[in-house]
Specification:
Length: about 375
């Protein structure tokens, strides 16, 4: 059969291509960016479940600059209740791992090359035409590519992106940068909920990666503060659990929203990763769900007769298999943002009781941690 076509050579698309090859299914990748495009400067938080996927593909051992998260401290500002999660609670070496996006993309790019998987760079897909037997991609350069299955993994940035079935604008932005604290992080991450939105500190090398959520106007103002003023504001916002904040790198902002296109797929086209769902970064679920999309789709292709790959029956099975995990992640992150991003007294007390229950009930703690790591299948 013809090779499966994957739109997007980012981490989700690359993992899908590598996993397909491991299943004995040929894949070809089309990437809009040129091969020498500048690497993205973002920081990623991978769950231990994502590490297992990358390990099975032979990619994990290629990665550099990886910092494990062995503990997570969860609290809410100005109210009682805190929970502490630890890798030993569920018998794993780490709850997650923090690394530069560029490090992961470089390792995956090399893995694609070593596996001799065809990647066509600089191919901008303008239109996708579904079909009963084949789907076709129409590129800006006039070329047309056809396949029995087209996997869209372009992060939802392509011209052919459909309107989401559900959207929520949180009216928030994230301010991100690296910060140096007085005390060493000892591989502990922090998730601190405030009425303005959550703030997270993720151990990264000998520093922390900061994700500070605030309303749009406040976020823009915070990002433009002089470094000394920014550090004072951060200390006031976050507290002194890590001692003083000593320095901060360049700040960037990006808007936060929920957009769910859905795992439902038909007519030889399926969307995975951010092309299917975009989540709020709280609890670090979105990227990891995307990697599970890629892994589950490739596994299903491997279990499907070659003549049936991309068929309506196969795509319906994929949608059924992914629904609980995806909707669980969407619902969980949306719940956290909406319930914690306010200062309503009854909710504040209820949140405190919830965090207290999470701290003192080991079965509940294991339940939550396993789903954060592995998704709905736990």
């Amino acid at each position: 059969m013809s090779a499966v076509l994957i739109v997007g050579a980012g981490p989700v698309g690359a993992v899908c291509a590598l996993a397909l090859q491991q299943q004995g299914v040929n894949a070809r990748v089309l990437e809009a960016q040129p091969e020498d495009a500048r690497a993205d400067g973002r920081t990623l938080a991978l769950s231990h479940g994502s590490r297992l996927i990358l390990d099975r593909l032979g990619v994990w051992g290629r990665l550099e600059d990886v910092t494990p998260i062995t503990r997570i401290h969860i609290s809410q500002r100005g109210a009682f209740g805190a929970a502490r999660l630890a890798a030993e609670d569920v018998g794993v070496p780490a709850l997650g791992y923090v690394l530069p996006y560029a490090a992961l993309t470089a390792a995956l790019k090399q893995a694609l090359a070593d596996a001799a998987i065809a990647v066509d760079y600089g191919v901008v897909v303008e239109r996708i035409e579904p079909g009963a037997d084949m789907a076709s991609l129409h590129a800006a350069d006039g070329s047309v590519h056809a396949a029995p299955l087209v996997v869209v993994a372009d992060g939802g940035r392509g011209e052919a992106a459909p309107k989401p079935r559900f959207e929520r604008d949180y009216d928030q932005m994230a301010v991100v940068c690296d910060v140096q604290t007085e005390l060493p992080h000892s591989n502990q991450a922090y998730e601190r909920f405030t009425p303005e939105g959550p703030a997270a500190l993720l151990p990264k090398g000998d520093r922390y990666a900061l994700v500070w959520t605030a309303g749009r106007e406040d976020a823009e103002r915070i990002a433009q503060l002089a470094e000394a003023e920014f550090l004072v504001a951060l200390a006031r916002h976050f507290g002194g659990r890590q001692g003083r904040f000593l320095s901060a790198g360049p700040r960037k902002t990006f808007p936060l929203k929920l957009a769910w296109t859905g795992s439902e797929a038909a007519d030889r086209v399926v969307r995975i990763g951010n092309a299917a769902q975009t989540l709020h970064p709280v609890a670090g679920q979105g990227f990891n769900i995307g990697l599970r999309d890629a892994w589950e789709l490739a596994s299903l292709c491997g279990d499907t007769p070659a003549s049936e790959i991309g068929s309506a029956a196969m795509l319906a099975a994929y949608a059924r298999g992914r629904r609980a995990d995806v909707l669980g992640g969407v619902g969980f992150t949306d719940f956290l943002v909406r319930v914690f991003s306010n200062d309503i007294a009854p909710l504040r007390h209820a949140r405190g009781l919830g965090l207290l229950a999470l701290e003192v009930l080991p079965p509940l703690k294991r339940f939550v941690v396993r789903r954060m790591i592995f998704g709905a299948r736990g």
